[in-house]
Amino acid sequence: MAQLYFYYSAMNAGKSTALLQSSYNYQERGMRTLVYTAEIDNRFGSGKVSSRIGLSSPAKLYNESTQLFDDIRDEHNRDAVHCVLVDECQFLTRDQVLALSDVVDELDIPVLCYGLRTDFQGELFGGSQYLLAWSDKLVELKTICFCGRKASMVLRLDQEGRPYNQGAQVVIGGNERYVSVCRKHYKEALQKGTLEGIQSV
Ligand SMILES: [Zn+2]
Predict the structure, then answer these.
(1) For the whole prediction, is pTM greater than 0.90?
(2) Ligand 1 centre and the CA of 24: distance in Å?
(3) What's the gap in Å between 11 CA and the centre of ligand 1?
(4) Taking the C-alpha atoms of 170, 163, 117 and 88 in order, what is their torsion angle to the nearest 10 degrees?
(5) Which among 88, 140, 176, 196 is annotated as catalytic?
(6) In angstroms, how far is CA 139 from the centroid of its own chain?
(7) Is 88 annotated in the active site?
(8) Does 147 show up as a binding residue in the annotation?
(9) Which residues are the active-site ones (predicted)?
(10) pLDDT mean over 107-135
(11) Model confidence over 11-57: pLDDT tens digits?
(12) 14 labelled ligand-binding
């Protein structure tokens, strides 16, 4: 039986690398994969999933109005699909997560979703909320804070590198940066308004 997987983490834990490796493993065995990524994230140019270590794959773009079940079923009828992989899955809508669960249950195709669990304010992303609720398998991809603990939080830094937790959940093309830290240092950085003096501890 196929299953719905949610691979989640903070930023920079190698999610895209893990996705590309899984896709490659299928293809190596002569199986066909479908890769999707969110239209909202065009850091690397459209229609592509790229990892920071230089791997990449063509991808279909989805936005909030994409009918994922219909799209995948049509592709599957044309030429059998053995696995669906979704990058930046935090941007999926509730209906799209439901549609992906239908792909698993009705078409019997495994669906592997990769994305962030929470935003820079520590709130669940919409897609992640329903993936946490409905996935068969939850897999945490770990990355570490500068202190060596597991980094589970995403800190937003302004142009001057000061942590802040205001503004829209997603800013594309802005000057802010994000850094993954442990919960203790997330709180401490916001309290002090700086990472300085914390990082050296
Ligand atoms: Zn830490």
Answers:
(1) yes
(2) 34
(3) 14
(4) 40
(5) 88
(6) 12
(7) yes
(8) yes
(9) 88 (proton acceptor)
(10) 97
(11) 888 899 999 999 999 999 999 999 999 997 555 556 889 888 888 99
(12) yes
